[in-house]
Write a structure and sequence with these properties.
Elements (H helix, E strand, L loop, with lengths): L1 H23 L12 H26 L1
Helix pairs in contact: 1-2
Length: about 60
């Protein structure tokens, strides 16, 4: 039980580092979707991955 929580915390930290990378790739001078397609998709996917890791960890803790 404790090992799985550690694994999910490490994965969350890893996804958070990738999220910070994608946030730095956004061109803030031109915030159009065409200009920033990859960074926007990267930020969205990493945010969803962090959210899912936290929900899975919470579900395992309940069991």
């Amino acid at each position: 039980m404790k090992n799985s929580q550690i694994i999910f915390n490490v994965l969350t930290l890893f996804f958070l580092i990738i999220l910070i990378f994608w946030i730095t790739q956004i061109n803030y001078n031109d915030l159009s979707f065409k200009e920033n397609l990859s960074p926007y998709l990267g930020v969205t996917s990493m945010t969803l991955m962090i959210f899912s890791m936290q929900m899975i960890k919470k579900n395992i803790k309940k069991k």
